[in-house]
Design a protein that fits this description.
265 residues, alpha/beta, Rossmann fold, eight-stranded mixed β-sheet, two-stranded antiparallel sheet, 8 helices, 32% helix, globular, disordered N terminus
């Protein structure tokens, strides 16, 4: 796992094929772990305004994996902002439970990112979503939650949330925005059971869309080509699954077309 600062900004920009990538700095909305965040912004060709997606990395920090997804989204007409929550807090990895930040604090970082991305003249500020992986997916689920908080109005400025193999303890029955859950049946790090259970209750209680897919035989990190045929990390299996990854792309594309393609009413 390669953190952003080890790669270097010029190399990151080269990795983002298509679009123009720039650095951004803005404050987190977190009061418990306040910090000025770093992020990488990239955009489609054209003048916009475009819908936007805020991307939240896994516990290993910013990797090429999120940059590949950013490029994929840029080609489909979305501005992307990939948030680095770790380096500004002098962290490179929180996979062993180091804090800060917690998933909730990363969610508050995303609230700060929302305020920033809405200030960009080429972004449609009423069409912003969030997507996260593992640790970052927990933050995305916190954002989707309907529990009242001081930051609720800003937090609920998000139109949609996508969570790849999240820690499902962050997923509650009260959902404020549509959620897409992409889970792995054989995930031994963030098992899908709680998300599967809560998703049905959330749909019944609030009527907000919760789309869920559990990929048979897939493991944690199934959309990350860096994991190849499988590796062990902190005692957990990480493995790429091309079939699951392709299906996930199709589901992400359809979900975002439904929820970010038109202005809010």
């Amino acid at each position: 796992m390669t953190p952003w600062r080890a790669v270097g900004i010029p190399a990151i920009i080269v990795m983002l094929v298509g679009g123009c990538a720039t650095q951004a700095h803005f404050p987190s909305a977190s009061r418990t772990s306040p910090v000025t965040l770093s992020a990488l912004v990239s955009r489609p060709e054209g003048t916009g305004p475009f819908p936007a997606m805020i991307l939240l990395p896994a516990c290993g920090g910013l990797e090429q994996h999120q940059l590949t997804w950013a490029s994929w989204l840029n080609r489909r007409g979305y501005v992307t902002l990939v948030v680095d929550s770790l380096s500004p807090r002098s962290r490179s990895n929180v996979c062993r439970g180091e804090r800060p930040p917690s998933p909730m604090e990363v969610g508050e970082d995303a609230v700060g990112a929302l305020a920033y991305v809405r200030s960009l003249p080429y972004v449609a500020g009423d069409r912003v979503g969030v997507m996260g992986w593992s640790f970052g997916a927990g933050a995305a689920l916190w954002i989707a939650g309907a529990q009242p908080t001081e930051a609720a109005n800003a937090r609920h400025g998000f139109r949609a949330a996508i969570a790849f193999y999240p820690p499902c303890g962050m997923f509650g029955w009260e959902i404020a925005v549509p959620v897409l859950l992409l889970l792995a049946e054989k995930d031994d790090w963030t098992p899908p059971g709680w998300c599967v259970s809560v998703a049905e209750t959330a749909k019944a209680r609030r009527g907000v869309e919760v789309e869920l897919k559990v990929y048979p035989s897939a493991a944690h990190g199934f959309d990350n080509t860096n994991f190849g045929g499988g590796r062990s990390y902190l005692g957990h299996v990480l493995r790429y699954d091309g079939s699951a990854a392709k299906d996930a792309e199709q589901r992400v594309e359809g979900f975002l077309l439904r929820h970010l393609s038109a202005p809010a009413h």
